[in-house]
Amino acid sequence: MSEWTTYRLGDVCSKIGSGATPRGGSGVYLEQGEYALIRSQNIYNEGFHHDGLAYLTQKHADELSNVEVQSGDVLLNITGDSVARSCQVDTDILPARVNQHVAIIRPDPKKLAPRFLRYYLVSPAMQSHMLSLAGAGATRNALTKGMIEAFELVGPSDLGEQQAIACILGALDDKIELNRRRNRTLEAMARAIFQSWFVDFDPVRAKAEGRKPAGLSKELAALFPKEFEESDLGDIPKGWRERPLPEVFDVNPTRSLSKGTLAPYLDMANMPTQGPSPDTWVTREMGSGTKFINGDTLVARITPCLENGKTALVDFLPDGQVGWGSTEYIVLRPKGTIPPAFAYLLARGESFRTFAIQQMTGSSGRQRVPADSLSKYEIVAPEVESPIFQRFERIVSPMFAQITASVTQSRTLAALRDALLPKLISGELRVPDAERIVGRVM
């Protein structure tokens, strides 16, 4: 084990500085483009988030060329409620720039390993230190360039040991990220089937045109109608019907949970914007809120949470347990043989979200969707006991079971990472011992 030394951050970095907003502000942001603009909403201690990532034209990116992000850069939120959050840039989004709420910290790799710095900044002691600095005597939380330059880090003098520590923690994060990507692929497959069967009616269209439905067995293809009929929503499969949403789902079904009972609580902050499962929840005494059980789909009904896509398929409760959360959730529970994933996939769809947003009422900034307005949303579907739903469940339920298993594993890995991080960063735990611990769970 090498000696440990104290580093002043300003002495071991080639760049420390914040970005800027391009001329024209948010009016020039694009949903897609060649140059990404990283903002504070993309920076989290557990890693880089792609949600809300904005893009710039080359012209606007050139105006910010002095805040170009490079591979390995450590990013730090320096203002507002997200101050002190830190991660490394995801190289997949490069080339990129940062705005004025994010600082680029670029260590000299011959003096300080960038990934070691990233983990040092998110360690509990360093987070506490940065938060105390940011809130000291200011009307708004902020970290200045001078503060960042003056940060003192205590770590191994040997770069190899710094890299070994970062490698151990990074292996856990890499596995978590691999699980996320695998889950995105599984959900995309389930969405594609949902879209094909219940939105585009591909099997019916193929049979109507005298073709064999792609990817369907003869037995499964036989369950779909072979022609269309007219309806107010256009051509729909013959024998299917336009059904108001409450005919297909129970909306806010009654659940029993006595006030004061300790039960799992999911707050709005931990509602996922991507994927079906929340990363975390807490146990709290039941007060006033929405109650739910496994298999329910939760949809945020208030702005901006609805627009941001906060939606969850409840899969984390013990058998028979009732959970609860924000009063700003709408609960959807499929009827008949319709599988739980059907409601989740519908709620994630563009059509449903657009409709729900259009139903919002109330003053600016506090608009919400009245639950009874969902009775006006219509779904084209067969009878709720149709064997098509049973076959759909047989195909997509294993996909969601794999997603749940991966999320559960990722929670375990994240807990281990959070336990090892302060011990490795402080030198309390030696690298070989940590490697043995990680090896037992990977």
Please tell me about this protein's structure.
This protein has helices at 58-63, 114-122, 124-134, 145-150, 159-198, 202-208, 218-221, 245-248, 340-348, 350-358, 387-426, 431-441, and strands spanning 4-8, 13-18, 35-38, 43-44, 47-48, 54-56, 68-69, 74-77, 86-88, 96-98, 102-107, 152-156, 228-229, 236-237, 241-244, 249-251, 262-266, 282-285, 290-292, 297-300, 311-313, 323-325, 329-334, 378-381. By secondary structure, it is of the alpha+beta class. Among the domains are: 4-157, Alpha-Beta Complex (Adenine-n6-DNA-methyltransferase TaqI, Chain A, domain 2); 241-381, DNA methylase specificity domains (Adenine-n6-DNA-methyltransferase TaqI, Chain A, domain 2, Alpha-Beta Complex), CATH 3.90.220.20. Helix 5 (159-198) runs antiparallel to helix 11 and helix 11 (387-426) runs antiparallel to helix 12. The longest helix has 40 residues, at 159-198. It is elongated, with a radius of gyration of 25 Å.
Number of helical stretches of at least 4 residues = 12
Looking at CATH, which topology of the domain at 4-157 would you report?
A: Adenine-n6-DNA-methyltransferase TaqI, Chain A, domain 2
> Can you summarize the main beta sheet?
4 strands, antiparallel
**Oligomeric form:** single chain
Q: What gross morphology would you assign?
A: elongated
Q: N-to-C terminal Cα separation, in Å?
A: 24 Å
Q: Per DSSP, what share of the residues sits in E-state strands of 2 or more residues?
A: 15-25%
Helix percent band: 25-40%
**Using DSSP, what is the number of strands?**
24
Strand-pairing-aware structural class: alpha+beta
Average residue-wise pLDDT: 93
CATH superfamily of the domain at 4-157: DNA methylase specificity domains
How do the strands line up in the largest sheet? 2-11-8-9
CATH class bucket of the domain at 4-157: Alpha Beta
Ranges where pLDDT stays below 50 over 5 or more residues in a row are none
CATH architecture of the domain at 4-157: Alpha-Beta Complex
Radius of gyration: 25 Å
